[in-house]
Design goal:
Elements (H helix, E strand, L loop, with lengths): L8 E3 L5 H12 L5 H20 L4 E7 L5 E7 L2 E8 L6 H8 L3 E9 L6 E7 L7 E6 L2 E2 L3 H12 L7 E9 H10 L4 E8 L1 E2 L5 E2 L5 H6 L4
Parallel strand pairs: 1-10, 4-5, 4-7, 7-9, 8-9, 9-10
Antiparallel strand pairs: 2-3, 5-6, 11-12
Helix pairs in contact: 1-2, 2-3
């Protein structure tokens, strides 16, 4: 699969190839029970969030260590907020809290119209100062890209520059990546793996099923 046309796509497998492949094998397996699914999905999400934070700007800063030596380090610039696309995106919020402390959170609910297949905004609650922040947009699955495109539009309407939006995602379909980057070439997407296709129901293949159902235990 040629991904060279997506310069702002960042794959977790490029850094942790064996770990990611092993963890993804567990959560993709339909025989994996809910407790194990949650545990290993959370591990992957934590790695994705840590990778995403690598793109925040830093400035040089020196400190004095307990041995009275000077360490030439760095400090983070810019505040962040995390925006989850309900409901599956909520599963990723704890990982952000774990590594970012008192991070601001926002939520967006987008659902597809069954007749037109177009995404519609049903709810949006974003921090009032979001335009001054870097945004981690959270949604584990990128299939057709319709919901994420709508979410990015909403965030940009609040004044967030496109280059300060980082979409944090577990599995992306090639079709969805193409749609998102064609509309928003300056955003970054951090994902664990890219799957080649969608089936006739627009599910990612090979995929892992409905992430929200498996994570929250609402499978029928």
């Amino acid at each position: 699969m040629d991904l060279s046309g997506f310069p702002n796509l960042h794959l977790l497998t490029d850094i942790f190839p064996n770990q990611v492949k092993g963890l993804m094998t567990i959560i993709r397996d339909r025989e994996t029970d809910r407790d194990r699914f949650i545990f290993y999905a959370d591990r992957l999400i934590r790695l994705l969030v840590e990778r995403s934070l690598e793109f925040l700007p830093v400035a040089p800063e020196s400190v004095v260590t307990p041995t009275d030596a000077t360490y030439a380090g760095a400090r983070f610039l810019g505040q962040i907020c995390a925006v989850s696309v309900l409901r599956a995106g909520e599963s990723m919020e704890m990982a952000v809290r774990d590594v970012c402390g008192k991070v601001r959170l926002g939520k967006i609910l987008i659902q597809r119209d069954e007749e037109t297949a177009e995404p519609h905004l049903y709810y949006s609650k974003l921090p009032p100062d979001i335009s001054d922040r870097w945004v981690l947009l959270l949604d584990p699955m990128l299939a057709t890209g319709g919901s994420i495109i709508k979410a990015i539009e909403i965030i940009k309407e609040k004044g967030v520059p496109e280059e300060r939006i980082i979409f944090v995602n577990l599995v992306s379909a090639l079709f969805g990546l193409s749609r998102v980057f064609s509309r928003f070439p300056q955003i970054r997407i951090v994902t664990a793996e890219v799957d080649p296709e969608l089936n006739d129901r627009c599910y990612i293949v090979p995929g892992l099923g409905d992430f929200g159902d498996r994570y929250f235990g609402t499978e029928r």
